[in-house]
Task: inverse folding
């Protein structure tokens, strides 16, 4: 049995393997405040689902506070340390496994990742665990060889501490905390659909170096969009899996660990199809942010009640119940189900 709390290394791999084997996905929630983190952990505990907590650079900076007499990099590093310390202290008491992850970091934000890995070095010496379970490096705007070479360097570094790496291939439309593109700015819409040959190349050069996951684009858009406005093609994931298996002459169906970005607003059919093709991590930020803001609006505007945090909690618990049911992760925690 795996102990509850923040997991990394081999236990994170076991979590991924179980999700893919039983065809469910873990919700990955971008948190903005400490109370939102607490609410999400509570929901995961109630519904016995393991969960991925994500933090972006800008949200880490916000949590530290803009009033600090520090550089933005220093603020974001302090904010990330605050969240990680909070999560490490709290997660183990909720009886589920938690993956702690940093979201989209482009070339400009790699110094932030470097700072966090340095902190993980220190944290590991003190606690025998890294600070974060995994980090995302998003160099999807760069040539693929450059993307892979940078990820190769960092995956080796991460793996020495049991930290996983998530990379992005192809462009996810929309914007995530200042990183990304509005749809109107993407002149070549083919970039929204990753070429399976690129997945093969990245897998061959990186997978043996550590715990690798790939955010391959198949029309994904950050934020909630109207049905029919974006055409998702989850078969790109299936084609990528088949290509790799054919090249390696193996019979495994889902050898790649795929990530679904821009999950909010997606149809159930697209979600189930993506999970069938190897998606284990489902990013769903906007829907949770909406639930949080609805709790504030309802109590401050509608009910003239400024004590709104209790109601944001109720809204998040309700939304998370829907998410766990949709992704099939309810009652699947590996703290009690290791088969």
Result:
């Amino acid at each position: 049995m795996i102990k509850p709390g923040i997991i990394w290394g081999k236990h994170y791999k076991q979590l991924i393997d179980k999700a893919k084997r039983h065809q469910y996905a873990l919700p990955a929630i971008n948190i903005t405040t400490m109370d939102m983190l607490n609410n999400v952990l509570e929901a995961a505990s109630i519904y016995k689902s393991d969960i991925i907590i994500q933090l972006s650079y800008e949200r880490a900076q916000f949590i530290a506070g803009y009033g600090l007499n520090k550089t933005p990099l220093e603020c974001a590093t302090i904010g990330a340390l605050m969240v990680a310390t909070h999560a490490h202290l709290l997660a183990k008491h909720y009886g589920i496994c938690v993956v702690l992850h940093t979201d989209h970091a482009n070339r400009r934000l790699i110094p932030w990742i470097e700072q966090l890995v340095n902190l993980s070095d220190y944290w590991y010496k003190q606690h025998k665990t890294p600070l974060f379970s995994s980090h995302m490096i998003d160099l999807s705007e760069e040539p693929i060889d450059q993307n892979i070479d940078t990820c190769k360097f960092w995956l080796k570094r991460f793996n020495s501490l049991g930290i996983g790496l998530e990379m992005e291939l192809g462009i996810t439309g929309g914007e995530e905390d200042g990183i990304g593109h509005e749809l109107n700015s993407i002149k070549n819409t083919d970039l929204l659909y990753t070429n399976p040959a690129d997945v093969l190349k990245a897998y061959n050069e990186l997978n043996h170096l550590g715990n690798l996951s790939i955010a391959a684009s198949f029309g994904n858009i950050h934020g909630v969009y109207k049905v029919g406005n974006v055409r998702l093609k989850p078969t790109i994931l299936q084609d990528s899996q088949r290509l790799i298996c054919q090249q390696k002459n193996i019979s495994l169906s889902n050898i790649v660990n795929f990530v679904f970005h821009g999950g909010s607003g997606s149809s159930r059919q697209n979600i189930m199809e993506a999970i069938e093709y190897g998606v284990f991590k489902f990013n769903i930020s906007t829907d949770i942010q909406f639930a949080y803001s609805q709790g504030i609006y309802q109590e401050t505007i509608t009910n003239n009640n400024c004590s709104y945090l209790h109601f944001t909690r109720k809204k998040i618990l309700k939304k998370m119940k829907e998410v766990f049911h949709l992704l099939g992760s309810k009652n699947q925690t590996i703290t009690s189900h290791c088969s």
Notes: The chain has one domain: 5-327.
